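Treating backbone geometry as a discrete language has practical consequences that deserve illustration. No coordinates are needed to read the tokens, only the vocabulary itself. For completeness, the protein is quoted in full, as a sequence line and a line of structure tokens:
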Amino acid sequence: MKFRCVIWLWFLLFSGWQVRATERPNILFIVTDDQSYRTVSAYPEALPWAHTPNIDRLAERGVRFSRAYVGTWCMPARATMLTGRLQYGVESMRMEGEYPRAVYDPVQTPFWPRVFRENGYWTGQIGKWHTGIDNGFGRDWDHQIVWNRPRNGENAGNYYDNQLLEFNGRPGVMVRGYSTDNYTRWAKEFIEGRDRDVSKPWFLWVCYSGVHAPFTPPDRHLESFPNAEVPAPADIYPPRQGKPSYSRDYAHWVPGVDGSPVLVAPAQQTVTNNQIHGNRLQDWVRQYQQAVSALDDGVGEIMRTLEETGQLDNTLVVFTSDQGYAWGQHGFSHKIAPYDANIRGPLIVSMPTRLPQGVVSDAAIGGHDLPPTFFAFAGLDLPWEMHGHDITPFLHEPDTARPRPLLTALTGFKFGSDTHPIPTAQNEIYMGAGVPWWLSLVDGDFKYIRTLVEGEPEELYDLRNDPEELVNLAPQPDHRERLLGLREALLAELRRTDAALIDSLPGVAVLP
């Protein structure tokens, strides 16, 4: 009898644990590479011929954020998503040797998936890895299939095929096939339970390497959008009045023989530009959107797998990109610059059993806001001080939650204490793309930008009335009070996040 009571007590305790584990949501975090918000047809800024039905359906089943600034370029965006801290607050992360080799000390720079793992989550990561040669298998991740670019520099340009992939900490092996489809297949297998402990809730980070240059679509999408038309942005050619010198004169495009803009930008590091349809603006944007179509296919397959396995109701799905990408806006053909065209990406959060559906929020959200949100959904305390905020209020009450100012920063190839003092040498303050360090603050409908080069003008844009950021309001006397207020608000955010670089900020141009 006593033995039966023990067994019954054990059963009750185990059953109760199982219920609690089931109630803890799974978290599916899908991050694409260099995908602009303009590529998702659910966004009103998308071109009329753009078509992403699966991502759109995700938006219909969740909350779509119109202003997401997850990162500025690949490596710091991922470091921020793994720590909840902006680039200047990620200690020990640094480039070492030839790009893209990078290292970090996991004691000084712990990644939060380890905390989930220690608290009963099964953690998985599939796809691109760009934050140091140490990918954390066995410490941060229970399951991992990664294209480790920092470790395998000779393979760092293979965004779409012939990738050296590391399976669960083993040395890289060459894998053929289209990377977007490969990652999707492995993500589905993880969700189906082939690579995890099915008794545990899970966190899966799917890091697509598309739609990064060379923007290669799969064969099935090579003929898509045959009548694509892309109007030239208003300021595709210089000069641009009111901008800092680097932005004022930026020129990646020239008029072609038929008047259409033609790309003249050099190839990126580790990537050779591969034009498929031609070198005109509309050719490049068409090719870019075709590669996005493969990502949309992947999202559709993953969501169907969640539904077929009965896990959809208990899974928080977050879809975003590490940053956006400009096509002619302000003369650019890349990311990095502080304008919406360059860095603004999509952000959709969906869990219909807990969150509203088909809702749009204008709150500005950063990559450092996502980890605190994941911890809130998992019911876990933050393990260290993060720069971001839990965005749950914007998910539950998107119409009434009060937006906070959002700080975004570009400190080039420097991280942590290496960002102070702010360098003055041109080869340190400017990245390879010719964009210098900068700070930006979005507060409501206005964006304030401070270029970290001595004597450059501040920038102020009305995002609602001037979404293309064509007119710098900073020099206008009517906007002086707002400018000074946002300048101080930016400094306040630097102080809140313990940014030591605040002590070496260069002077700005004298206002008229």
Q: What stands out?
A: The CA atoms of residues 22 and 395 lie 22 Å apart. The longest strand covers residues 122-129. The longest helix spans residues 281-308. The two ends are 90 Å apart (CA to CA).
